[in-house]
Design goal:
This protein is mostly helical. Helix 15 (367-391) crosses helix 17.
Length: 934
């Protein structure tokens, strides 16, 4: 086991020999190593020498195990009667400061151990002083309903440690910044004013015990001014009042302050609840780049107010607030935490070094910058400690005199020249690294467009909702030249301008997006690309501008994680939310990010249509898997647990087949098994059939309701038994009876692509087993194909092709090929859900030849590529006269053609060949009324 002596890494050099002799004489029994430390410390620090005069005997004994000795002082902070507390705490502060200072000067304790010991004692002192203050009020009957035993747990009051105390980073001479609150729900409304008065008195008593300067000194200088509107509010506020203030009037600096907030004394649980309530205020759900400007403004205001805006001059330089100082690193760290901490809880750390480490791990800061700033932060804090250690002064300034610098160098056991060189290098590098980040807030684009844009379009921008606030207008004014320069580089600048104008007109607010673009100009290229190419994706972006946050998240362009990882990710998001509506909104926000990612990857050619279709389906399935139990739990709160074995969601059509487009509805049916249970057993029980019907409606509402974050998906339940005339949820027994005895052929065709996507595993297995039995039943070939032919004719009559760009409707297109593939699956009992397997089954059933099978598979791939691409460009069928140049280029690239004309020729030929093939396959079973019209 290592001893204190064995860990000594340095000893202060003798600065004043008489003081060194004085210190050594106070502890004559110490060995040479400890004696040298005591002598050196006494020679450089009149403050430590004064503490030695008062606590020499304790200190000499404490050297046997300094950490244990300090911990004993901390643990015993409140172990005296109230009338002895003031003296007792001052003695404790002397002892903690002395031993911590000696361990610090010797290099035995790390920065974290030093600040941790000081902070732990501050916590204990606050707790002891608060308990004494509360006991006095309770003893006088001033706290309604409270007894003497309640004082130890705060009696409903909590002391929040802010700033360095909150982060366990206290200095030797730090103020302690406290916010005192009480939980008003602990008291009857009629007792509120009496309780508040008592808590105010207890707070003042606590502050006096800690702060008052007596013959024995003080414990901690105490600052209560960080509370909301301190000029007019009491020193101890009701939590509800504080919440209302932050929700309505809270500013960015207060958000930053709460990064480090920590319940330190009193009712810790109440304090934790308050901080949880305040979480949406501190941690915004979007990437909050507007915080950068706010932080920059604060930096400039501090510099101007303190007169610290000049160049770095070591004499008298402020190590905290001056250029390259501690506050620069803290602002740099906290601002990035505010930007991204709402989306990533891992960034919500109080400590500066810990914050830098996780920011680097998450990709918000490069590892070398984080390591450099961490090293400089530790060095700055060490110098700051030495400056304060000289006379226990509340200062952060370097010495102004040569003598002062000589003393500082002796304290740090380094040569003066080396110290000054190191200080200058560190301050300069911190300023360079941090100023570059904030300087972007002052940047002005220099780009000038070389194209004459329509001035009428540009002039109306200021009337748009996104630019109505002065701050948004100012931000956009800075962005405008660069945006116009990018638009001018488009092949058709005026066309790109019209697209951007449409996006801007639909944007409801601008500050956050404009701040994001200002700090991340590379996103402007992506934005222009999107609005120029895809009006549909641009419209989506204007409704959900926060999805651009995801581009900066670090993994936006990483490999697709797959459905299982998506489901787990959504599960974490849902678990982090406390109430039902918050979970629905959080799901929307999460899904929008991923939906946007799939679209951007497809638009930029990083994925093809097949991959994008599978990814959209993965996302939809993950949403259904995540939300189904959430909706079920919420429904069960009112009506009891689901009777029987529960219910499953069965994906139909493209959802079941695992292939969706950007605008796909979700075709579903719900199958439940009451398992003989007639009704639920909740507060408002429902008969099983009604229970599952209403649960299904609740799920539909959860998916489709327009909330703050918009809708998730539109849901189509028409493929359930008996369609719109049947119940929205079907029991397993009824579903089996219907499918085995009453279902139409088209309903069996629909089953070829059905797949359970959410719900209990055992019930899912039973539904899949039933589906397999239905599909593998023997069936008459002629009857089946006759029904298919008639169904094809009805579809053609009801909805023909809407032009060349309609990949879905019409002969030889998606729906037509899918129908034949489903017929092949029915004839061969094929349970695979993809169209390619169905076409292979049709070939095995001799409905089509192997050559025709290959042709139809290729045609289907072409139609799907077109459908996927056009749905990314427009929610409705494209029109050639509205297809911009960028959109046309995307289509040509997506379909593997060279020009738009060659694509049009390819599509027409593909449709005709596929239609002729299907005509031949079904010729013996029906006449094709469309054949003559083509």
């Amino acid at each position: 086991m290592s001893t204190f002596i064995s860990q000594i890494a340095r000893v202060p050099r003798i600065f004043q020999s008489e003081q060194a002799k004085d210190a050594r004489a106070l502890m004559p029994d110490l060995g040479p190593e400890l004696g040298a430390l005591v002598a050196g410390a006494g020679s450089v620090s009149p403050y430590l020498l004064g503490l030695m005069h008062k606590e020499a005997a304790w200190c000499e004994a404490a050297f046997d195990d300094p950490a244990r000795a300090v911990q004993a002082v901390i643990a015993g902070a409140g172990d005296v009667q109230p009338d002895q507390l003031s003296s007792h705490l001052r003695q404790g502060k002397r002892r903690v400061a002395l031993m911590t200072g000696l361990a610090d000067l010797a290099g035995v304790w790390s920065l974290e151990q030093v600040t941790g010991a000081l902070t732990d004692f501050a916590d204990a002192a606050c707790q002891a002083a608060l308990v004494a203050g509360l006991q006095a009020q309770i003893k006088r009957g001033k706290l309604p309903g409270m007894t003497a035993g309640d004082a130890a747990s705060g009696a409903g009051m909590v002391v929040l440690a802010m700033g360095k105390m909150g982060a366990h980073e206290l200095n030797y001479s730090s103020d302690i910044d406290l916010i005192c609150l009480f939980d008003e729900t602990r008291f009857d409304p009629d007792d509120f004013h009496d309780a508040r008065t008592a808590f105010v008195r207890a707070t003042r008593a606590m502050s006096g015990t800690l702060n008052d300067l007596t013959g024995e000194g003080y414990v901690f200088r105490t600052d209560l001014r960080l509370r909301p509107d301190p000029g007019v509010t009491p020193v101890c506020m009701a939590m509800e009042a504080a919440e209302r203030y932050y929700e309505s009037l809270g500013r960015t600096w207060e958000r930053a302050a709460y990064i480090k907030a920590r319940p330190a004394a009193g009712d810790i649980a109440a304090g934790d609840r308050f901080l949880t309530t305040l979480r949406p205020f501190v941690w915004r759900r979007h990437l909050d780049f507007a915080a950068i400007q706010d932080a920059h403004d604060m930096r400039l205001a501090i510099r101007e107010h303190k007169g610290l805006g000049g160049p770095i001059d070591l004499a008298g330089h402020n190590m905290k607030l001056g250029r390259g100082g501690i506050r620069e690193i803290e602002f740099f760290t906290q601002t990035r935490q505010l930007i991204a901490g709402g989306r990533d809880p891992d960034l919500r750390l109080r400590g500066t070094c810990e914050g830098l480490s996780v920011l680097a791990e998450k990709g918000w800061v490069t590892p070398d910058v984080a390591a450099t700033l961490t090293d400089h932060y530790r060095a700055h804090r060490t110098v700051e400690h030495r400056v304060q250690m000289v006379r226990d002064a509340q200062t952060h300034n370097l010495p102004k005199s040569d003598e002062g610098f000589a003393r500082l160098a002796a304290m740090m056991d380094v040569d003066l020249a080396d110290l000054q060189k190191d200080l200058r290098q560190r301050l300069t590098e911190v300023h360079h690294l941090t100023e570059g980040f904030f300087a972007g807030s002052d940047a002005r684009p220099s780009a000038t467009p070389d194209h004459a844009f329509d001035t009428a379009t540009l002039d109306r921008w200021l009337s748009y909702p996104a630019l109505r606030s002065p701050r948004a207008a100012d931000l956009f004014a800075e962005l405008k030249p660069g945006l116009l320069a990018r638009l001018a580089q488009a092949d058709k600048p005026d066309e790109a301008l019209r697209a951007f104008d449409g996006f801007l007109a639909g944007l409801p607010a601008g500050v956050q997006l404009f701040s994001l673009l200002k700090i991340n100009p590379q996103l402007a290229d992506l934005l222009i690309d999107i609005v120029s190419t895809s009006p549909a994706l641009a419209e989506y972006l204007s409704r959900h501008a926060g999805v651009l946050d995801a581009v900066l998240g670090g993994d936006f362009f990483s490999d697709w994680p797959g459905q299982a990882v998506l489901a787990a990710s959504l599960g974490q998001v849902l678990n982090a939310e406390a109430d039902y509506e918050a979970r629905l909104d959080a799901t929307r926000r999460w899904a929008h990010d991923w939906h946007f990612r799939v679209g951007v990857h497809h638009l930029r050619g990083l994925t093809d249509a097949t991959t994008a279709g599978a990814q959209y389906a993965d996302l939809a399935r993950a949403v259904l898997q995540g939300l189904w139990p959430v909706v079920g739990d919420e429904f069960a709160r009112r009506h009891g647990a689901a009777p029987g074995r529960g219910a499953v969601l069965v994906g139909m059509g493209s959802l079941g087949a695992g292939r969706l487009t950007a605008t796909s509805d979700l075709d579903m049916i719900v199958i439940y098994d009451p398992d003989g249970v007639e009704q639920s057993d909740g507060r408002r029980p429902l008969a099983s059939r009604l229970y599952y019907a209403r649960l299904t409606q609740a799920m539909i509402t959860a998916m489709t309701a327009p909330m703050a974050q918009g809708r998730l998906y539109e849901v189509d339940m028409r493929l359930r038994p008996s369609g719109n005339q049947g119940p929205v949820a079907t029991s397993l027994a009824s579903f089996e009876s219907y499918q085995m005895g009453a279902a139409w052929v088209w309903e069996h065709l629909a089953l070829t692509r059905a797949d359970v996507v959410a719900g209990p595993a055992d019930l899912a297995r039973d539904v899949e087993a039933l589906r397999t039995r239905v599909l593998r039943r023997p069936r008459a070939r002629a009857d089946t194909l006759s029904e298919v032919a008639q169904m094809r004719a009805r579809l053609a009559a009801a909805k023909g092709a809407d032009g060349l760009w309609d990949a879905k409707n019409g002969p030889g297109r998606l729906q037509d090929i899918e129908l034949l593939a489903q017929a092949g699956a029915l004839l061969k009992g094929e349970t695979a859900r993809d169209i390619a397997s169905g076409l292979t089954a049709a070939s095995d059933a001799t409905l089509i030849t192997p050559e025709e099978t290959s042709l139809l598979k290729a045609a289907y791939a072409t139609c799907w590529s077109l459908q996927s691409a056009t749905r990314l460009l427009s929610a409705s069928v494209l029109r050639s006269d509205t297809l911009g140049q960028a959109g046309a280029a995307f289509l040509v690239r997506s379909l593997g053609c060279d020009t738009l004309n060659s694509l049009e020729t390819h599509l027409a030929k593909t449709y005709d060949q596929a239609a002729d093939t299907i005509d031949r396959a079904l010729a013996d079973y029906a006449n094709d009324p469309e054949r003559e019209s083509r």
